[in-house]
Amino acid sequence: MQISARYQAVYEILTEVFKNERPADNVINDYVRQRKYIGSKDRRFIIDTVWQVIRNRMKLEFDIKSKSVRDVLLCYLKNEDFDIVADGSEYGLAALTKEERQNLKNLSDEVYPDYVNDECPKWLYEKIANPALVKSLNAKAPADVRVNMENRDVVRNKLKQEGLFFSLTPYSPYGLRSEERINLNNCVAYQEGLIEVQDEASQLASVLSDVSSDEKVVDYCAGAGGKSLAIAAINHNEGLIYAHDANWNRMDVIKDRAARLGIRNIKIIKNVDDCDFDKFIIDAPCSGTGTWRRSPDAKFRLTQNRLAEIIKVQSEILETAYLHTKHGGYIVYITCSILAEENENQVLAFAKRHNDIEFVNHKQLWLKKIDKPYVFDDERFLRFSPLVTDTDGFFFCMMRKL
Question: Which residues lie closer than 8 Å to 335 by C-beta, 6 or more apart?
Fold first, then answer.
């Protein structure tokens, strides 16, 4: 592809992404899937450029004083030769108008407001009130994988033989980390079920759930089954894990993932009727603010109304867990959010409503399951983040029903 055609593809993808209706990953995947003729080098250039624009969207909009997709892209390209990158050819980016050239000469030289500089919508920036954390969530994330029912060093060496170099994750005993993006379609270890993609914080949540094979366990908001699969692997297919999600269609992929990974002890259920679960695990629907390193476009899709709806649903799910957990059993509450309203405020309010709920000592739990020092500032729950654990933003809390 000519360079101008590459940028036309970037423009077409961004046009859809900037509608703030669908995750950028989905938009990108649909675009390249429908255009098989795009070669691998062109595809990588296009995708990398799209993510660069998204990660700098607010600064670009501020500089050009416009939210127009084309204006933002032209601002991103301001130091390029526009006769080349926007040549107006049949498949290329349209040539600049006189007005556009003038606009690029008049780019703002104002100092960025803090929320713009740190690439976060103002209302969220003020709510988070931690500039360093916001900034860390706009950096690229490494690629973490979980080793599945095999020796981690053996699998690491097999990946090395494929030309894929991983280090050990700092905390998870099952994790491997690459600073480079990996193509799983060409990875034999992935195809053979030796590894599964999973951020280290999510791996740790599975480990810290401390599920034993003789416990009756439900993964209530299982989605695509990441934590169910991890817990099943940790227990080497012993015991039984019930997997449930309100969106029944989301669970279609669990069977295929389980088959590739050799997992046989997950039972998908449409309704949760029993009231005697030893462990009721909630991977709660949330804002996803902790995943911005991987999904920087998500911050633009989140609204205050949507957040309020999510918080209400989380509270309702906790009440469901209370009803279906036996006395002496445990409720595990997990989010991939960094917002207090979804995390500590949520579980503290839940515990206040029920005088037979107590928090597990998370320092003791951590030292029991993880052979690393305790790095958190509270023993009632855990707050993972790029700053504290070099992971996605995650929240973990285990509570016991007396």
Answer: 283, 284, 286, 290, 314, 342, 343, 394, 395
**CATH code, domain with 177:** 3.30.70.1170
pLDDT at 366: 98
Query: Domain check: are 223 and 298 in the same one?
Result: yes
Largest CA distance in the chain: 73
Q: Determine the pLDDT at residue 181.
A: 81
Provide the β-strand partners of residue 335: 395
In the chain, the number of structural domains is 3
DSSP character for 83? H
Domain shared by 24 and 101, yes or no:
yes
Query: Residues near 94 by Cβ (< 8 Å), separated by ≥ 6?
Result: 86, 88
Model confidence at 398: pLDDT above 90: yes
**Among the listed residues 297, 289, 354, the one whose alpha carbon sits nearest the alpha carbon of residue 320:** 354
pLDDT digits (tens, 9 = 90+) for 257-287: 999 999 999 999 999 999 999 999 999 999 9
What residues have CB less than 8 Å from 303, skipping those under 6 apart? none
- Domain limits for position 297: 200-401
Phi and psi torsions of 361, nearest 5°: -75, 105
Q: Which residues are catalytic?
A: 336
Same domain, 94 and 219: no
| 236 and 179 in a common domain | no
Evaluate whether residue 41 is within a structural domain: yes
175, 207: one domain: no
| 8 Å CB contact between 51 and 14 | no
Residue 123 lies in a domain: no
**Residue 219 sits in the same domain as residue 182:** no
Q: Decide if pLDDT at 251 tops 90.
A: no
CATH of the domain at 209: 3.40.50.150
100/168 same-domain check: no
Closest listed residue to residue 279, CA positions, set 236, 316, 334 = 334
Map residue 181 onto helix, strand or coil. coil
Kindly report, residue by residue over 318-340, the tens digit of the pLDDT.
999 999 999 999 999 999 999 99
Q: Would you place residue 182 in the very low, low, confident or very high pLDDT band (cuts 50, 70, 90)?
A: confident
Please name the residue ranges forming H helices in 326-387: 344-353, 362-369
Write down the pTM of the prediction.
0.94
Residue found by looking up tokens 């005993």 in the block: 173
Residue 244 domain-assigned (yes or no): yes
CA distance 234 to 250: 23
> Percentage of the chain with pLDDT > 90?
95
119 located within any domain: no
